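Severity: low
Component: inverse-folding endpoint
Summary: output formatting inconsistent between runs
Steps to reproduce: submit the following structure tokens with default settings.
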């Protein structure tokens, strides 16, 4: 059968970023794509054939493509685009297991929105799953063993035919976690939508290990000629955090309280920029 490829487009001009398409796929394939928060890393998999594949695309001067000819279930880039969360473990951009001694392939992992936190539950094997319920856990970060059970999942929360899904509402989309709003929404295959609220600060009181992570997503837009502001909401076991701006445009600064501010004529010309803020 004929094949078609993937291309990256500039969202301002809708022009292709590169002339050559990236890696072909048969037009019969039912493909699913998920993107990292910055829109640079993409995970793809198929539900039309086996193995479903672990496909990684990265936008850049030279677009990057990597394929692992195995089945992983969903393939979702994390917030930073450097780690891949799947239905069978956590991986790097070469689809090599990331800390397999900690993050087992027997579990499914789903990144939270705009955060390094993520959810996990034991990978199901329909229709022979014996456990009537499955704990859903919230993890602080990849570098911490701290996690919290937020609820029990049921078989009815999942589409039993997810492996061969004909549409893009796959099981990974049924679990939406927003640490910023202390909420998890579950959109079950059968039954009513459930909203689970939690108090992250209260949960962190019981964590014995050291931790340091950011909860708040950075502001990604502003009006031309205006002032860019972003308040970093970070959590630390010690409760004391120091901020430092390592790189950024002229005129940008970060306060002792974690407020990032920039006001520059650069924005009058609709130019883009970025920064790197270190905290400890």
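Observed output (run 2 of 3):
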């Amino acid at each position: 059968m004929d094949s078609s490829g993937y291309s990256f487009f500039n969202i301002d001009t809708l022009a292709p970023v590169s002339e050559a398409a990236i890696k072909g796929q048969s037009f019969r394939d039912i493909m699913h794509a998920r993107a990292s928060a910055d829109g640079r890393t993409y995970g793809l998999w198929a539900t039309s054939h086996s193995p479903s594949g672990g496909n990684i695309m990265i936008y850049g001067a030279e677009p990057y493509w990597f394929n692992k000819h195995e089945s992983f279930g969903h393939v979702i880039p994390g917030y930073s685009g450097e780690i891949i969360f799947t239905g069978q473990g956590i991986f790097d951009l070469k689809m090599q297991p990331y800390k397999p001694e900690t993050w087992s392939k027997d579990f499914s992992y789903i990144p939270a929105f705009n955060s390094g936190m993520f959810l996990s539950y034991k990978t199901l094997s329909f229709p022979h799953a014996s456990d009537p319920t499955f704990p859903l856990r919230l993890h602080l970060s990849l570098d911490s063993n701290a996690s919290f059970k937020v609820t029990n999942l049921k078989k009815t929360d999942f589409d039993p035919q997810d492996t061969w899904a004909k549409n893009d509402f796959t099981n990974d989309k049924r679990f939406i976690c927003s640490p910023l709003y202390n909420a998890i929404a579950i959109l079950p295959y059968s039954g009513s939508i459930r909203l689970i609220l939690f108090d992250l600060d209260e949960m962190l009181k019981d964590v014995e290990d050291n931790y340091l992570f950011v909860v708040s997503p950075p502001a990604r837009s502003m009006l031309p000629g205006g002032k860019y502001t972003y308040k970093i909401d970070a959590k630390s076991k010690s409760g004391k955090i120091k901020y430092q701006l390592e790189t950024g445009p002229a005129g940008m600064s970060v306060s002792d309280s974690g407020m990032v501010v920039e006001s520059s004529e650069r924005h009058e010309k609709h130019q883009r920029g970025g920064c790197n803020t270190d905290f400890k």
